[in-house]
Amino acid sequence: MTRRPLPLLILGATAALAMAGCGSSGGGGSTGAAASSGGNAYGGSSTAAAAPKPATSSGPATIATKKTDLGTILVDGQGRTLYLWVADKGGKSVCDGACAQAWPTVLTKGAPKATGAVKASLLGTTKRANGTTEVTYKGHPLYTFVEDHAPGDTTGQGSNGFGALWWVLSPAGQAITTAA
Description:
Radius of gyration: 18 Å
Number of helices: 3
Number of strands: 9
């Protein structure tokens, strides 16, 4: 067996871990054209093991508001930014598979709850193809984004992932279409 100096072993292991992370759905950071051409929102392949869980709880989802550089926006009960996807039509979500891995749906068990400046009259739900119940706001199915790591992050704002634009929502239920 050949002995290798410890620094080379550490460097090799670090490089291997970095390369492995680049191919998963947790690496990268590009949300542009690669995502709209069939890859995930990062331009790479996705794996089920690395996919985040949809935002859900054992009970009703809570929808709240948060003041950001984009204005007051909708967030979930943990403060994660909520998005609408322009490709959704008629209150139905068409984001599934790799799309739903990068943009987890906001699921609920029971009627969603409004807090802050959220208008309860604009909250609703839609049934997904897999039988789960997704929260809607003014008819828009709601999503979080896996690249938003801290409450209030808006890294998905204006992304053209999966062939259509993603926008944060105002308490009036309108897409905020300014850059982050």
